[in-house]
């Protein structure tokens, strides 16, 4: 009997010891910092919601070709843009055929054939596009980057045509099987009836024949604190050292990573040269990694769109552009061409890992914005200004945007024309 009691007492002591050890290791204050792996990040204060990559992938403009050289444009956030894009996402595209861009008479198609043209700026990897559209996997072009999708119908042809443009410029991929009818396309094209007419010389960019209604806005602003960014970006924010540079910039470092703050621009640059390589990252994988990184470091303070994934000799720069707008006017990119660094998040990836991260510390309260209806000039006034602005460089793209500025504790968003020149420069035209 005594031996049985001793056995039970010994068992209880062992169990108690295990429970006490568990609480000592995992539940004491500060114990959490001891169990992070080299690739785990501390989640910062919530600076915005987490987003899926699908939330950041959408065309920067939708061009409606109505035949007889009539065109109109729908921009992100407008009713018909959302309606048409939502319907196209529900249709399937299969059996792609690789063809030369020169096999098509695009001038004739643009002028005569009803259709919908989606443009993606610098392009979107096919593997990401497949997350937003029902495109059957196809090894023929899975590694491509698509800059445009053109869906159209031809008179006396019962088949709908869908062509995907490679950002290289000389190759297109036509879907042999398209889950759209000629009637579907015509219905979408008819949504453009009665809207602002646009004209184009060669399809590179479109000019509205009437002034374009937009909204100017003044938004109360604030600043994320350095402490917030430190807690987000360093495993142990308490171990960082502070360094004051001669140019006024501030650097916080834990001897491996560094956080540089430009107090004049309220802009941060984070560097992690010791980021563990995860292998050779593809454009699609790098974009996914960049989105995951932002989600883990505070989230997204507004509406963003994947703007570009630039290939460098040893790294890839992923840029997310902030958008602002209201119904029914649309949503447009916030530019940083004024000298104020605001409106984008930029990440540098090396071998599939984030080695650099840049963003503004400023944020705006969109719910308390003061708004005013304004108009951007179009027609001959715009054409003459564009000719004088571009000179011999030539224009590659034109779209509305917002130029930010700061007055006291408010961010001012002024509607402008965003002019992208063929040499890559981006200019803001205030009309």
TrEMBL record:
InterPro entries recorded for this chain? Answer: YycH, YycH/YycI_2
Q: What is the lineage of its organism?
A: Bacteria, Bacillati, Bacillota, Bacilli, Bacillales
Tell me the superkingdom of the source: Bacteria
Instruction: Domain (Regulatory protein YycH): give its ranges.
Output: 3-422
Protein name from the UniProt record:
Regulatory protein YycH domain-containing protein
Gene3D superfamilies the UniProt entry points to: YycH protein, domain 2
Q: Which CDD domains match?
A: YycH_N (cd15787)
């Amino acid at each position: 009997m005594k031996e049985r009691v001793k056995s039970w007492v010994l068992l209880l002591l062992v169990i108690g010891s295990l429970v006490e050890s568990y609480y000592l290791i995992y539940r004491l204050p500060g114990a959490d910092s001891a169990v992070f792996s080299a690739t785990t990040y501390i989640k910062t204060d919530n600076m915005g919601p987490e987003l899926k990559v699908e939330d950041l992938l959408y065309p920067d403009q939708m061009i409606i070709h109505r035949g007889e050289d009539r065109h109109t444009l729908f921009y992100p956030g407008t009713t018909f843009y959302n309606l048409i894009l939502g319907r196209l996402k529900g249709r399937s595209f299969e059996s792609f055929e690789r063809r030369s861009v020169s096999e098509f008479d695009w001038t004739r198609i643009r002028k005569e054939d009803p259709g919908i043209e989606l443009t993606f700026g610098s392009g979107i990897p096919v593997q990401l596009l497949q997350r937003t559209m029902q495109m059957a996997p196809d090894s023929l072009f899975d590694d491509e980057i698509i800059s445009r999708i053109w869906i159209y119908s031809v008179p006396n042809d019962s088949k709908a045509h869908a062509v995907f443009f490679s950002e290289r410029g000389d190759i297109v991929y036509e879907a042999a099987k398209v889950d759209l009818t000629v009637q579907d396309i015509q219905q979408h094209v008819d949504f453009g009836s009665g809207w602002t007419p646009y004209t184009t010389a060669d399809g590179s960019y479109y000019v509205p024949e009437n002034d374009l209604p937009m909204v100017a806005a003044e938004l109360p602003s604030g600043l994320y604190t350095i402490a917030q960014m430190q807690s987000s970006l360093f495993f142990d924010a308490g171990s960082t050292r502070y360094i004051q540079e001669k140019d006024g910039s501030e650097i916080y470092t834990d001897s491996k990573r560094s956080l540089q703050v430009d107090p004049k621009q309220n802009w941060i640059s984070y560097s992690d040269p010791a980021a563990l390589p995860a292998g050779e990252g593809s454009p699609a994988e790098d974009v996914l990694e960049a989105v995951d990184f932002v989600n883990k470091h505070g989230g997204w303070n507004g509406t963003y769109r994947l703007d570009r994934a630039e290939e460098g000799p040893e790294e890839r720069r992923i840029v997310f552009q902030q958008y602002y707008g209201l119904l029914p006017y649309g949503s447009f990119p916030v530019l940083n061409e004024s000298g104020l660094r605001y409106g984008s998040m930029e990440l540098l990836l090396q071998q599939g890992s984030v080695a650099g991260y840049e963003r503004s510390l400023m944020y705006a309260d969109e719910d308390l914005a003061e708004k005013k209806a304004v108009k951007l000039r179009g027609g001959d006034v715009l054409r003459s200004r564009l000719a004088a602005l571009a000179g011999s460089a030539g224009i590659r793209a034109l779209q509305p945007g917002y130029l930010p500025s700061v007055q006291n504790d408010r961010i001012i968003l002024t509607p402008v024309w965003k002019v992208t020149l063929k040499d890559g420069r981006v200019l803001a035209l205030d009309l």
